[in-house]
Predict the structure.
Amino acid sequence: MPIIAEVGKKETASDCFVKLKITKKGGIKIDLKSKVESMYGKSIRNTAKKMMNFFGIENADIYIEDAGTFPFVLTARIEAAIKKCFPKKQEEFLGKLLPQNLYSVKRDRFRRSRLYVPGDQPRLIINAGLYKPDAIILDLEDSVAPSEKESARFIVRNALREVDFLGAERMVRINQLPMGLHDLGFVVPHNVHTILIPKCENSDQVKEVDERISEFRIQNSEFRIFLMPIIESALGVINAYEIATASKNIVALTIGLEDYTADIGTQRTSEGTESFWARSQVVNAARAAGIQPIDSVFSDVADEEGLKNSVLEAKSLGFEGKGCIHPGQIKIIHTNFAPTEKEIEKAKRIVLALEDAQKKGTGVVSLGSKMIDPPVVKRAQNILRLTGGK
Amino acid sequence: MKGKNNAVGRWIPEKINGNPVIPFQGVGKYIPDYNKAAPPVASCANYPKDGNKVVPNLREALKKAGIRNGMTVSTHHHFRNGDKVANFLFDTIADMGIKDTRWFPSASFPCHSPIIKHLESGVVHYIEGSMNGPLGEFCSRGKMKGQGVLRSHGGRYRAVQDGQVHIDIAVIGAPTADPFGNANALYGKSACGSIMFALADSQYADKVIMVTDNLVPFPCIPWQINGNNVDFVVEMDEIGDPSKIVSGTTKLTRSPARLLIAELTARFIKESGIMKDGFSFQAGAGGIALAFVIHLKKFMKEAGVKAGWVRGGSTKYLVELLEEGLTNAILDGQTFDLDGIRSMRENPNHVWTSPFTSYSYHGKGHFASMVDVVVLGATEVDVNFNANVVTHSDGMLLHGIGGWQDCLFSKCTILAIPSFRDRIPVIVDRVTTLCGPGELIDVIVTEKGIAINPLRKDLLKALKGSILPIKPIEEIKKEVERICGGPPAPPKVDKNRVVAAIQWVDGTVIDVVYKMM
């Protein structure tokens, strides 16, 4: 059992560094160096004491270097340090699950924008909902350094309970399997809406995740947890349909182009010729499976024109959404996924035809001499919903 | 220590630096009825007929100006964090063996931290002026011998006008000057746009020394400061560091939360109907204010609306409005970047203004109250819309007032601020230092929503049914406290040690700053 654990970050605003040393005697000693000492010093010390008591630790030296840490992060950092010293401790120090976080989402809701937020960056997490993305992804995978992974799990868990995401779909990107299965324990019981499975290559991986989720969900079975596999390899693209149909919980399928282009031995270009086939394959697989096809991220946050063109291209390929790595991308994505006037006009005519059919009591919707299939009607309704805002 | 509570419920001591204090009586309540102060009568017979007032160096000029222990010496902040005049001045004064001076700057910056050694050695007794960064901290720790007195830009002009502060020697840094003392800030390597913060000093000080690093033959055209008020002219190698005079100010914020605040602010101005043909606005050079101008400009273009006039601190973003015909004029207090300086030099509709025309309480009206909407910052705001702009929530004095108090007289005052910084709430129950009364603060725009002062029923009505996130300020405060883990503990200060007084624009005292424990 290690008796010293160091977690967190020094000199990072809204975060802290915690060094915990388990001792044999002398009780709990807290050494706090805080930028907000006069305002929250007492509260920080109280939290640390309360947590030591909760975990039954009687003797320890705790050094905290604080740059204005939010309470949900402070408790996450301290718990991470404790569990580094006592890996077998099962108890969890959980803050109150905000009542405003107890919402569920529909499987066919809009997923035009999904904002990636690194799981170890509290400053970005705390405000993520303000920018009104359709979904927020708390990321445990590539944006979190290996040394930060364990601490990030506690931060993401606490964020799911204590941070108000203002109605966005609450997503978590777990690590690549098998590590990702371990991540699930930190998020499934805390009303996560959707799990993103990275580097997905076959249906077994989806099933593994699905099974693990149902194990954890016994504690909290109120809402259903959706899945969104990310295809990031040549094999994944080949198996896209198999993956898309691996579970009834899958609501969308997406593609990660950085890894995919590396896997096929090329580089990502702004024209995207190299990934055209793969992206079309993902759209096809998703449509065939009746789920949403979602495009990769656009990584140059300063290039607004490039993003706009990329969204229009994605829309023309059949995608319904795109990933964002900066809040400034959200509005551009929403605006350009929005239907054109021509699409809106057509949608209105279809919905009117539907109402007409309902009045007549017939199940068949037709526009002129053309019969309209139910998915087309649904799409038209979706378009009108889009134009009317959320 | 004796004292009493003022009109906003803040305890005010009877005396500051041994002088009697008038506690704040309410906005527009204090109406003094005596004559203005006046400098000694000058006679041209005492000055060189050829108009050449150049003396070899600053030491010589100070000697000729009759510098003595205990005098009040003024400088100006036109060169911002690149100023070299004030440090050189007090090094010279120290070298001359002069003690117990009172420094009366129009503002100080972190570059002035070398003054601390003169405060410690007794060359400078205390600072009467805004204290920024290290000087503010020095004052907060109770290390300054006298008590600081902070005024707004308009308040400083007023204090000189009504004799509250008498300047013995004014030292004015001029980017361009002639031997007669005419000066401007439009040309020269240290060009900063305008030097009008020195206007009162040039008019009212006993002796005026013009210091320049660009001496040009008479006449220096145009002159912003009139040579007829100047006693001596001194040439120096460098009066400022050009890279710091205009540095950092036109950088747009990348912070998504701040960009959101800027956008909400512009939308508020559009949707409240304030943005209409001929309207006027003022915005500073902070990150949110700059981004706000960009959004407002977009809305103005979309709606085909043109402003009548805008007030600077000007930046390239205001200059673009002028050059694209979206405003008829810029009335400019100070110029923050090179585009602003160029425009002021070349465009007759980009006009330099002084704290007198813009702000002074002793004017027969001023521009600030004619501005339709102003966008400002603050360190704290309370639920009654009272705001703080000088101290942080731990009690530390770190910022000057600038033109902030003066600008509150705009028809609509908006504080565009994040609702918390790191973990520190900005919306609080009680501000640490009350610098501006809530009755003058109309709207708070934060990333979490917009709060309208209940006193502004007209604005509440105009925005009724708006899609903007308008909420009671208490609601925003509650949300912020949830995020930050409850309200912050009050600052730990020694209530028996007042280290600085915050004057209101009229010269009464609105609050004091205490020594930090």
Q: What stands out?
A: The interface with chain B takes residues 13-14, 35-43, 67-71, 126-127, 130-131, 164, 326-328 of chain A (CB under 8 Å). The longest strand of chain A covers residues 16-22. The domain at 4-85 of chain A is CATH 3.30.230.10 (Ribosomal Protein S5; domain 2). Chain A has a mean pLDDT of 92.
